Amino acid sequence: GKTMGWHGDMIAELYGITRADQEAFAIRSHKNASAARNKGYLGEEVVPVDIMKKRTKVPYTTDNLIRDDWDKMPAKLPTLKPAFRKPNGTITAATSSALTDGASAVLIMSEDKAKELGYPTDITIKSWDFSGIDPFPELLLAPPIGWHRALKKAGLTAKDIDLFEIHEAFAGQVLATIKCVESADFAKKHLNIDHAISNTIIDMEKVNVNGSSIAIGHPFAATAGRVVTSAMNELRRTGKKHALCSICAAGGIGGVCIIEHTPKMK
Q: In the chain, which end has fewer C-beta atoms inside a 10 angstrom radius, N or C?
């Protein structure tokens, strides 16, 4: 009977994620998204739409949630009240993803079919996994289980991943996810293995490099398509090889995929 935000707040408490850590991460999301938009990166992922306002069509070509004044946020965020676990919770509106309007689409086909139709074949899905976890008390922490299985299927380790695209339902949930994949105790409890899921400390410079759901918004069911598209585009821009995409969902569900970029493939 509790909300996703309530559970997210409890997870932050369980894993020692402070309010200050969450606020710093949220600001980083806006900073990265603002920079990506200014560079034209996000424009590559937006299909313009016309909205009727006072009988006039107004074109929308950019997301309107991203804060370009992210440098002013450190002063404002500590003044906000808890959004879910009142009065002492640590998650606020600013450290949560906003529910926004949106849609996404990803076209998947075999390499042979892509070549036949003239589509690029430089991006492939190397592995994927759907996982589940007991919703109480770790509702939003199924993805780490999927990280382990997807990495194993791909024959990779976390050290091999160049980019991590983690859906930002809440700043605390992302930071808890990273703590879990670095935790031998979590791996033993949920996977019965004697080592952490990640063989290295996750480099935050690889995480959500162009911002994510806190800054861009979270249209339910569309976010996963946006996350995968963002990862594909960043791999192409940088010439890097592997990205891991990670999504948590209601009911204790997690979805993870690893995509591979092979520039020489045509």
A: N
What is the length of the chain? 266
Q: Who contacts 152 (Cβ-Cβ below 8 Å, separation ≥6)?
A: none
User: CA 217 to CA 101: how far, in whole Å?
Assistant: 8
Q: pLDDT, tens digit, for every residue of 112-155?
A: 999 999 999 999 999 999 999 999 999 999 999 999 999 999 99
Query: Both tokens of residue 165?
Result: 């695209």
Is residue 3 helix, strand or coil? coil
Rounded Cα distance, 50 and 60, in Å: 6
* Straight-line distance from the first to the last Cα atom of the chain, in angstroms, rounded to the nearest whole number: 51
What is the sign of the dihedral through the CA atoms of 80, 36, 220 and 46? positive
* The two structure tokens encoding residue 61: 């070509």
Closest CA to 221 of 101, 113, 111: 101
Residue 56 is encoded by which pair of tokens?
């006039």
Rounded to 5°, the CA angle 198-201-204 comes to 115
Distance, CA of 93 to CA of 36 (rounded, Å): 23
- At 151-196, the pLDDT tens digits run 999 999 999 999 999 999 999 999 999 999 999 999 999 999 999 9
pTM of the entire structure? 0.94
Helix (H) / strand (E) containing 179 = helix 171-181
Q: What is d(CA 58, CA 75) in angstroms, rounded to the nearest whole number?
A: 34
Mind giving me the DSSP string for 234-254?
HHHHHT--EEEEEEEETTTEE
* 60 backbone dihedrals φ, ψ, rounded to 5°: -110, 120
* Nearest CA-CA partner of 32 in 211, 222, 158: 211
